[in-house]
Amino acid sequence: PPTAKRVPTKTLVQNVSVPDDYSWLRNGSADPDVATYIAAENAYTDAVLADATGLITTLVGDLAEWSNRAAGPAISATRDGLSGPCGAVEPGVNTFWEAGSYFYWIRYVQGKQYPVYMRAPVGTSPAAGAGCGCIVPPAGTEQVVLDLNAVVPENASYFYQGAFEVSLEDESLLAYSIDLVGSEEYVLYVVNITTGETIGPADGIRNTYYSVRWAVDQSTGARWVYYNVVDPVWGIPRWVYRFCVVECASPAHAQKRGARRGADALPRHGEELVYVEADVSLTTEVATTTDNSFLYIKIAGQITSEIRILYGPTGQFNPIVPLFTRSNGTNYDIEHHNGSFIVRTNAGSSENFEVLLVPTEAALASSPPIPIIDLATFATTTTGISHSAYQYIERIEAFSEHLVAWVRVDGLREVVTTPLPMQPSPVDSLRRLRFQDPANPRTQVYSVLPGTISDMEARLNRRFNTTCLIYTNSSLLRPPAVYALDMRTGTSTPLVPERPVPGLDPNVYFEGRVWANARQQPTDPGSSPVRIPISLVYQTGETGPLPTLLIAYGAYGDFQDPAFSSDIFPLLSRGLLYAICHPRGDADLGAQWYRQGKFERKWNTFSDVRDCLHGLVDMGLAARGRIAVKGRSAGGLVAGNVALRWGFVDGIEDRMGEDSLASVVIAQVPFVDPVLDMIDETVPWVPYEWHEWGNPTTSKAVFDAMMSYSPYHGLNASVAFPAVMVIAGMEDPRVQYWEPAKFVARMRAVKTNEGGQLFGAWVDGMDGAGIGDGGTALVLRVTDSGHFDSEGDFARFGRVAEWYGFVLRGVGVVA
User: Fold this and answer.
1) Left (φ > 0), alpha (ψ -120 to 50) or beta: where does 262 sit?
2) pLDDT classification of 590: cutoffs 50, 70, 90
């Protein structure tokens, strides 16, 4: 295997000298040794995986086959309609929305890997006046809005979609953005849908992020597109710009985007600087209320947010001042309905969020603006949904007659609806749409989402004047089905029923939620026992413990929903148990669950994952030495600690104890060096991240905690490791390539059981031909992409199949 050169350096933090022999890997193109080392690691990975080439090739085909099955019958470039309750229903369509006078949907065409955005006039759809059961347009009225197959170069190795935003005032105008590198610096294009003409620079507006909105200046008729922009120095979207598209006056007065922080630059394409956020721990985005009455900038960090109005019913706001002034540690977001702002906030003691209502006029007239921390006690504020220790409010939506709150109860998402205008109501009296039976674990694995989005943070287009709430539900086994909830009656109607997947018989699988008991329980009087939820699926025909892949994240108060993905079926069909651990640090069980897994209490995340592994073993579902654990990004801390502390290495006596559990670890774009990352403000997102991990420079307690759980700095003594695959992206702006590379270099320097074969730990021992010393593979794959997988299937399947092959061989599955 490659051996990285050692260039000892030391950094003084909290009067402690922190060593780093591999910081030179940060030098990138300035040091040819970096490219040489990375090339050597990639070549070594190829050599180690050569024995599994046949399996990996088969897995690529399996991933493609399952993807095609899940998508439904392939369609040609001309639409093939299927019979449905509202007319033609296009095969495979489960992403659609209404905006303005059009119904939009996404089509995938046979032999193409990128989406085609389509639309048809709403007036020609049975949705017009037909109730909640018909929201699908008939054939013959469609228009291609954007065909990304014609936009993305054929030789592109990476693709990620940013914005897709049609102007509601002039529905011939589209703004969209794409990233072909992985840097998360999107190129924004403005086009005329009817003529195909590109408006503005032909090569697009560079360096934008993913939020885009349209606005009309009522005094001049000018049509502007607003967007957030990445500051190349800090690496975060802290700027908001706008670009005039129609009826434009001279831009000579405008401030132009600077090439560096705080600098001015020559005019470029008529872009105007709208706002700069001075606090580099916060980011910017542009958004609108569902009723489109207000366009605003949302300034957001990990624990703090603020909203500044750009446009309202009376026109443009100048100056751009806060709606409610920020307070450190307090988040809020807004909706608007009939003269009132509806505010979701965790101000004060409402850690799980509450919903407040304040008259629009009073809020806008307040000078200075009302502090968000004082909003609940403002004279004209009323409470809509009270705070509850048992309910975490994730998101709110306002419609013409109803308010919708997306909430978590006992880790599971529910939908709360209440008529508008709101009357203060006890939490228990609100109408709820539940999807689970508390007594049946099989009903407790699902992912319900607003509209047809696949991520709670994604752009959500809604029609305001409707009583129909569209939502999507899926599970690990069940493909997405789309429903419309009649908010007047509480009745749901299928719009796009769950489509059976050929070759998938749900009856031969078990999916459900189980709970693992924490091995170390709180000792404080009155504390509740800690139990960690695990979502899982496996074939029921198998006997005895199963080879297992466990996924864990545990950060940012995130949610790892057990949503449908065709990617898992090549594993399930080979007899694996697929599990998701929901540890502290995620927010499945509310704000306290999140807070108990951050800062000085971060160790709870890792012990919870260990206890999930023990729980699966104790239940007879998994077996020590046949478990793989995967963590990506912040979950890299999980993966790193499993490798260091809870690895199973056959034949190595000191790794055969009670906590010897995982034989394989996959660390994808892993965050593994919190100490040296969090002291370096030149790394993008670091000030933002201080509110998640803490700042070791300013807090000795944080520094001590980080040193105790840092995988990178835990690599001190010689030790045996399970099989480990680390994956990095050269264009990754969040976890820079050098961090995973340093981790592998340091791990290799202390590893006592290097094995040149992929599966020395388990499979070799099965046939008596093992290498005898517990040798396991340690490999680093450095790709040319970024933090997120490409949305193009052709490249993605190969990357997934590679680490799948590593997992399967490592847990004893040979074909």
Assistant:
1) left
2) very high
Domains of the chain: 36-66+509-810 (3.40.50.1820)
| Of residues 269 and 481, more confidently modeled | 481
Partner residues linked to 106 by β-bridges: 117
Between CA 351 and CA 581 the distance in angstroms is 23
- Tell me the CB-side half-sphere exposure of residue 600, using CA atoms within 13 A: 5
Rounded CA gap, 219 and 275, in Å? Answer: 21
Instruction: Give the contacts of 54 (CB within 8 A, at least 6 positions apart).
Output: none
When pLDDT is cut at 50, 70 and 90, the band that residue 159 belongs to is very high
pLDDT of residue 384: 94
pLDDT of residue 133: 65
Residue-by-residue DSSP string for 332-397: EEEEEETTEEEEEE--TT-TT-EEEEEEHHHHHH-SSPEEGGGGGGSTT-EEEE--BTTBEEEEEE
Contact 546, 475 (CB under 8 A): no
pLDDT tens per residue, range 781-811: 999 999 998 988 778 999 999 999 999 999 9
Burial 646-673 (b: 16+ CB within 10 A, else e): bbbbbbbeebeeebbbbbbbbbbbbbbb
Q: Give residue for tokens 């706008």.
A: 242
- What pLDDT was estimated at residue 360? 98
What percentage of the chain reaches a pLDDT higher than 70? 90
185-200 in b/e form (b: 16+ CB < 10 A) is: bbbbbbbebeeeeebb
Angle formed by the axes of helices 793-810 and 32-49, nearest 10°:
60
The count of C-alpha atoms lying within 13 angstroms of the C-alpha of 715, restricted to the half-sphere facing its C-beta, is 24
Residue 807: CB atoms within 10 Å? 25
| Residues β-bridged to residue 740 | none
Residue 482: both structure tokens together? 């789309």
348: left (phi over 0), alpha (psi -120 to 50) or beta: left
Cα 682 from Cα 291, distance rounded (Å): 40
d(Cα 672, Cα 578) in Å, to the nearest integer? 24
Number of Cβ within 10 Å of residue 155's Cβ equals 5
Q: Tell me the mean pLDDT in the region 413-424.
A: 92
Mean pLDDT computed over every residue of the chain = 90
pLDDT (average), residues 61-88: 64
Cβ 665 vs Cβ 551: under 8 Å: no
Distance CA 682, CA 548 (A): 39
Please determine, for residue 745, whether its predicted confidence score (pLDDT) is greater than 90: yes
The answer to whether 283 and 301 have CB atoms below 8 angstroms apart is yes
Residue pair 813/575 in contact by the 8 Å Cβ criterion:
yes
Of the candidate ranges 106-110, 171-175, 311-315, the one whose mean pLDDT is the lowest = 106-110
